[in-house]
Amino acid sequence: MADFFYSIDLALFHFINVTLANPLSDLIFPFFSNLTQTWYGISLLSVLWLMLFFGGGTKGKVVALMIIPLVTLSDQTSSTLVKKLIARPRPCHVIAGRQVVEQVHLLFPCGSGYSFPSSHATNSFAIATFVSYFFKRWRPGLFLLASAVALSRVVAGVHYPSDILGGALLGALLAYLLIGVWLFIERKMLRRSITVPPSSGEEHGRE
Q: pTM for the complete prediction?
C-alpha cells in the first residue's frame, strides 16, 4: 500500500517538477519559495503585517501579534518535531552516491533538511488559516499566496506533493488550535467582565 501511494506521489512530482517545467515558472516560483530569505520578500511580508496591525483595528493588532507565536509553533513543530520523527529524504537528496529521485529539475540547492512536511507549506497555511478566520474578506488572497508558496517547493524540486499537502494540513490544524485557545481566553475575559462585583460606592448608593 505504501508503495502504491509513493508511486502516485512520485508521478505527481515528476509531472509538476519536470513535465510542466518552463522558463516562466522557473522565474516566478523561486520568488514565492524565497519570500522569507530575500529583501523584497521580507519587505512585502512586512508591509502586509503592518497593514494588518495598523489597518485592522483592535482585532487586527491582536491577530498580527498572535501571528508571531503561531509561526514559531508551526515552524518548530514541522522542522524540529515531525521532520525528525518521519526522517523522509528529499527527492533531490543524494544517498550512497545516488539521487533519491532521478531527473529532478532543481532550481536551487537541495538543502540538508528532511522532506516531510514542508515547513514552507506549514507556515504559510497556518498564517492563511489563522488570519482568514478573523478577516474573511482576505481569505482568497491569503490561500492563493499560501498555495503558491507551497507549490513552489515542488516546482523547485525540493519536496514531494505529499510534503506540501501534509504541511498545509498541519499548518491549518495548528492555526485552529491557536484560534481555539484565543476564543477560550476571550470568553473567560468576557465572563469575568460581566461578573465583576459592584464597587462599594455603588452599594452605598443603592442603600
A: 0.87
